[in-house]
Amino acid sequence: MTDEQINTAIAEACGWSDFIMHQEFGLMGVAPDTHGLRTAVDWYTCDLNAMHEAEQTLSPKEFVTYIEEVMKLYYEPMRAAARQRAEAFLRTLGKWEEAE
Description:
Order of helices and strands: HEEEHHH
Number of domains: 1
Largest sheet: 3 strands, antiparallel
Low-confidence stretches: none
Distance between the termini: 9 Å
Strand order of the largest sheet: 1-2-3
Number of strands: 3
Radius of gyration: 13 Å
Mean pLDDT: 94
Helix content: 40-55%
């Protein structure tokens, strides 16, 4: 998956909607529980803070699976890069798409 696809899929899983690709600001959408206006979507693939927020949406059972998925990509889960965490997050939810 491309970074854009990953960021969109994670945002969607976190409740974002109504996505567009803006020429200047990149991927934009409507965040959950907000004013309903589009804002820039977090870049989960390169922002550990954004991934931390995404991780908070997982149930306890999903979180255990998530840690297992992170460990498949990087042996030290606490040191995994945002991109690795993003992939593990989508694998946990069954939303990861292999490249064709």
